[in-house]
Each structure stands twice: as structure tokens, then as C-alpha cells.
Amino acid sequence: MNEIELSARPAARLVALLGSAFFAVSTTAQDIGRSEHGYSGESPQHEAVPSPAELESSGAVVGRVQVRTGNVFDTSIDGEDGWVYRTANRLHIRTRPSVIRQQLLFKPGDSYDHRLLAESERILRSNPYLYDARIVPVAFDGKSVDIEVRTQDVWTLSPGFNFGRKGGANKFGLQIEEKNLLGFGKEVRVEWRDNVDRSSLIFGYKDAHFFRRFLRLNATYADSSDGQTKALRLERPFYALDTRRSAGMELFDSLRNDARYALGNNVGEFEHRDEYYELRGGLSRGLKDLRVNRWTAGFTYERDRFEELPDMPLAGPLPEDRLLIYPWIGFETIEDRFEERRNQDQIRRTEDLLLGLRAAGRVGLALESLGSDRDAVILRGYLQHGADVSPGHSVFADVAASGRLEDDGLRNGILSAGGRYYWQTSGRSKFYLSLRGTITEELDEEVQLLLGGDNGLRGYPLRYQAGTSRALLTLEQRYYTRWYPFRLFHVGAAAFFDVGRTWGRDVTGLESAGLLKDVGVGLRLGSSRSSFGNVIHIDLAFPLDGDDSIDAVQILVETKGSF
Fold first, then answer.
1. Are 363 and 379 in contact (CB under 8 A)?
2. Is the pLDDT of residue 36 over 80?
């Protein structure tokens, strides 16, 4: 979930106030997604160009590669040709073609491979500063094929005030953030954030191409009311399916107060010093028969120290200090079965779904002889799979597990599993079902397994239930409209039902309140012009269980990465 809950942007407010006097507030489907260069959001094949299969079989090579970067608004179409939109375009610095080119997996002179065009599209669409990307062959002379790369920018400068509410708690923030600095694809931010846990002043910088292609740098510093956090990650990952090598390092150092919750109330706190340092590298033989296998290895240092806070209750035992120093080895496999969808988890955005298997795991060995405070085998793994079971029906499942095998058995063992089902009930509606569950074994004493308004049980306070296992079922009927107010948001709506509970006695001694249910309705605003959160949720949730301390109506306002 995006930590920025809801933003009242000056630019958005200006368009909202002035736009109705000049422009229509709705659009037809064929208008959506067009760019200043005629970008339509589709991939039409030029009539004079053979099919991708014919190009590959003929031995075609890539000729000229032309990049067309569209601005935020398309002033060539009705509804976006007013002075407000033209002014917004002039204020926006468009993504530089060189930034787009360095993310392409092909270049002039390479053999034409349609798979590389499709994967390059997916890489481009993963950037927050682009709304969509299309790569199409546009000319063929019998030997070389010219390629056109079409992208559309979104608004990336965010000076503003942020507000969000969920689970009965508010969040506030002030920030200035730019996710495409001077059109170079680099992100800088300065943010003040105040939430239920702490207030923080945060500085951040991200660079996806730090001095060379796909060398990624992510640096963050946070000065908080309860401590400081410093994080640095520098890596060249497996950025494409056929990438053969990866390497990286990660540094994390945090001093903070961790809270314990019971029935939505903070009942205890302790100081937590968390250090995590890692070096890693990986090798792969590349994509073979629509599958890629990757081997990784690394060395990790983890240290957790805990202290009591003056005049603060613990509401449970003080966690034990831990020091784990260990080498590890990992493996990952991915099927190349990606498909493009719309209105799956977004609103009128192109989504790249994996309809196949992705699985990874790693095992490490911590030894006292290496400096650890115990001998332990550290385990971590996940698996996900998606499939279309019939036309209009899709199913996705995932499993994740982690824990430590120590002399006295499994410690901090966590097994989570979930499934999602999508049923296209009409051209403008979809039924969604989600079922998730978690079981644990001998959790570390600083870890709480919580359930409430902040993680799916929308009719109840945040962090309301706690236990050693939990389950949550969500049923949701989704609706997609043609309404496109001020050409800023695609509008959707939802009616939902949540039911969940926890089991077992929590570290605070709290026992489950039993099965809890809620119903509600919500408005969804899919951002088509901004890089700051994909879907704004405005929900009214009504609890069907619980005592009189729970409000009869919960109002939730938040930004999520999905519908």
C-alpha cells in the first residue's frame, strides 16, 4: 500500500475549479490514453509491415528506432485543448528520449525479436512517470524494420498537503516530490509525515540508471520523533528475463519505537535498533524454452536490539536481542507468460499480468563461529501462479514462508497464502473475491499478527485483532464508468463485504474477538495524469459485529496500487 494516502495537489485543484467552465467532464473510450503524438493506447500493426512472426522468419533486423514521448495532456483532441491544459504541459518537463532509449532491450542492427519489444514495453510501463508505453513496427523495406516507441507522461511534481484516514486514524503530510527530475527519470523528495506511529522528516533519492543502464540507487534518510532511519540500496538486478548477471548491496539502520496493539489501542512500546546489511550476486543462463532460472548467493548481517522506554508499559515481555551473520544461496524460476489486461486491478491502465509460475527461495546458515549469537538455518520462499480458467474468469494464487530453524525448533515461522478470483460479469463490471490466511509458529516477541481497518477489515479500527493466525475473506462487486471528470480521473465504484478473524493468544495476552464482518460501498478514482498513487479509495464501511466502542460508520480515504 502506498504510504501517501490522499493528496490535494495545487495543480489538480486548479484544473478542478477552472476546468468545468471550459471543458466537458466525460470522454468516450476511444479518446482515453491518447497522447500529443496520436498515441492511442493500442498497438496497431502498420498495413505495410508484415506480422511479427513473418518479420522474425524473414530474418529482419532492427532499423531506425524513433522515440515519441507524449506530454501529460493531448492538446490535439477536444477537451484537452484549453489554456489550463496547455499551461500544465508547458510547466511539465517531458521525459527525454535518451531515458526511454536506455531502457530498450534492442537497438539498430539487432535481429528483430517481437518478445524483446513486448518486454521493453513492460519495463517502460513500470516507471511511475509514464502512463503507458507502446512499441510498434512502422516500416519494412524487406531487410530492416523501423520501430516506433510511443510513451505518455504523467504529472510528476508534487508540492502539496496529504491527508488520509483508515481504521479510525488520520495521517497528515507536507511534501515536495519530483519523480522525473528534469525529464531524466530520477526521483527526489522531501516530506514531513505525521501518523499514528510517529512524525518524520524524510529525504529520498532514487535513480534507476545511476551512471550506467539499470544500475539502481535508492537512498532514504528519515529523522523521526522516535529515532532515525538510514537506508541505501545499490544494485544491478535481473532487469530482464534474459539478463545473465546481477549484483547488489543493501544497508539499513533504524532506531525507532515499536508499539504493541490490542483492540485498536496502543498498549505498550519499546525501543528497537534494527541493522541489516547485505551483499549479493546472481547468475542465470537466460531465457530457455519460455522459462528463466536464476541462482543467487550473498552474505547478510542482521542485528536487532531492544530496550525498555522510561514510563512506558511493555504489554508483554521485552524481546530478546538477536545477531545473525550468515551466507545464503537462493534460486528463482519465472515462466514467460505475460499478458496485457485493462480493468483488472487498475482503472483503464495497461496491466502486465503473469499467467504462469514465479517461485523463489533461499536458505542461509548462521553459525556462532561466524559471529552469530546462535546456530540457525534461515529460510525464505514464495510461489505465485495465475491462470485463465475460462473466458472472463481468472484465478491467481500465492504462498510465502519464512522462519528460522534453531536447536529448539522453528522460530518466527510465518506461512501466508492467498487466492484471488476475477469474474468479468459485464463490459463494465467485475466480481472480485480474495481469500488470505496466515499461520505462525513461535513468533519473535516484537512481531504482532494484526487484523483491522488498515489491512482489509475495513469496518473496524486499525490493528484491532491480534493473534497467532488469521484469515480474511473479501467479496467485491466492481463497476467502471465512462466518466472522466476534468480528464484527470477515471471513475469506478465498489460494493464490498469483508469477514475475518484471528486465532490464538497474542504476545500482549489478547485473545481473538471472534468472527468480524462488515459491508460497505466505495468510490474509486483512477489517476491517469499523476504518478502519485494509482487508485484513490473513498470508502464507507459499516461493522456488523463488535462492541459499542466501535463507530457505526468507518470512513477510509487512502491511495492504493490497485482497485
1. yes
2. no
Q: What span, in angstroms and rounded, lies between the C-alpha atoms of 184 and 190?
A: 18
Q: Which amino acid is at 49?
A: V
For the chain, the average pLDDT equals 88
| Alpha-carbon gap, residue 320 to 322, rounded angstroms | 6
What is the Cα–Cα distance from 231 to 462, expressed in whole angstroms?
Answer: 27
For residue 125, report the phi and psi dihedrals to the nearest 5 degrees.
Answer: -70, -15
Phi, psi of 75 (to 5 degrees): -75, 0
> 514 burial class (0-12, 13-18, 19+ CB within 10 angstroms)?
exposed
Tell me which residue has cell 543467487.
Answer: 296
Is the pLDDT at 499 greater than 60? The verdict is yes
- Three-state DSSP class for 84? helix
Cα distance between residue 538 and residue 540, in whole Å: 7
Are 104 and 64 within 8 A, CB to CB? no
Q: Count CB atoms within 10 A of the CB of residue 57.
A: 10
Handedness of CA 3, 230, 125, 382 (dihedral sign): negative
Average pLDDT of the residues in 174-180: 87
Element (H, E) at 52: helix 52-57
Give CA–CA dist 290/36, Å, rounded.
36
The residue ranking higher by pLDDT, 532 or 22, is 532
**More confident call, 88 vs 246:** 246
Q: How far apart are CA 520 and CA 555, in angstroms?
A: 10
Please tell me whether residue 220 adopts helix, strand or coil conformation.
Answer: strand
User: Is 179 exposed, middle or buried (CB count within 10 Å of its CB: 0-12, 13-18, 19+)?
Assistant: buried
pLDDT per residue over 130-155, tens digit each? 999 999 999 999 999 999 999 999 99
The x, y and z cell numbers of residue 190, run together, are: 522531501
Tell me the backbone φ, ψ of residue 264, rounded to 5 degrees.
Answer: 85, 0
Which three three-digit cell numbers place residue 7?
493528496
Q: What per-residue confidence (pLDDT) applies to 197?
A: 81
Q: Which domains does the chain have, with CATH numbers?
A: 31-153 (3.10.20.310), 157-560 (2.40.160.50)
- The confidence score (pLDDT) of residue 173 equals 63
Neighbours of 553 (CB within 10 A): 11
Distance of alpha carbon 487 from alpha carbon 264, whole angstroms = 39
> How confident is the model over 223-258, as pLDDT tens digits?
999 999 999 999 999 999 999 999 999 999 999 999
Reading the block at residue 552, the C-alpha cell is 457505526
- End-to-end CA distance of the chain: give it in Å, rounded: 11
Backbone angles phi, psi at 5, to 5 degrees: -85, -55
pLDDT digits (tens, 9 = 90+) for 395-432: 999 999 999 999 999 999 999 999 999 999 999 999 99
Dist CA 90 CA 436 (whole Å): 46
Query: How many Å apart are CA 472 and CA 416, to the nearest integer?
Result: 12
Residues facing 472 on adjacent strands: 436, 500
